[in-house]
Amino acid sequence: MLTGDIAAGPQPVATLDRLIALGERVRWVSGNADRELVQLARGGETTIPDPIAPWAAAELTSAHVDLLASLPATGRIPVRGLGTVLFCHATPRGDEELVLVDSSYERWSEVLGGLGAEVSTIVYGHTHMPFTRVVNRRLAVNPGSVGMPYGSTGAHWALLGGASGPSVQLRRTLFDAEAACESISESSGYPGVEAWADFFVRSPASDSEAHQAFAPGDGRRA
């Protein structure tokens, strides 16, 4: 399952085509960056500050834009040992809300309050920082990010379920960062691709820096 923010990068077409080729092996939900790409590609405006978004939107074909526009906000899959798992981008209520590993129980109760008792586990993205947390008898999981991780290099993802019982494994797949930067720089027409690759592939922002930037957005008191 892909938890959103799929194509807002220096290789939007190649990324989408690779995922489309996987067919039914992949299920998708939309992220705020995907929604904003659709808005930009269709002549609208967004408040997204990242300059790569308008460039990426202009690269997409109409078929790519239609695909992103059709993605659901949430998805549910039964997982062995975990029951019904809800997948979303930020929270079940919206694609830009913020909850963090140390957000208060009151905040978590607010954003998860509309879920039925059948949902035992929630998997989401948005903050690009991996963690698991039990909150109000539910398991909250953030696998991190494959393309823009915060905290450590590599592709971050999660393996859910298992024959022996409930299981959530946070995984990190390492790769040759220098080779990846070279490949991205050679294949992308984005004008700032070298700087983008250096920041997101070689030396991603630390979890502390990302947390400090995100924390005020979850409604906590200063």
Question: Could you provide a short overview of the structure?
Answer:
This protein has eight helices and seven strands; from the N terminus they run ααααββαβββββααα. The chain is an alpha/beta fold and 222 residues long.
Strand order of the largest sheet: 1-2-3-5-4
Helix content: 25-40%
Question: What coarse outline follows from CA principal-axis ratios?
Answer: globular
CATH architectural designation of the largest domain: 4-Layer Sandwich
Average pLDDT confidence is 93
Largest sheet properties: 5 strands, mixed
Give an account of the 3D structure.
Helix 2 crosses helix 3. The longest helix has 11 residues, at 177-187. The model has no long low-confidence stretch (mean pLDDT 93). The radius of gyration is 17 Å and the shape is globular. It is α/β, with parallel strands linked by helices. It folds into 2 domains: 1-72, no CATH class; 77-222, 4-Layer Sandwich (Purple Acid Phosphatase, chain A, domain 2), CATH 3.60.21.10. The protein has 8 helices and 7 strands. Strand 2, helix 5 (105-112) and strand 3 (119-123) form a beta-alpha-beta unit. Helices cover 33% and strands 18% of the residues. A 5-stranded mixed β-sheet has the order 1-2-3-5-4, covered by helices on one side.
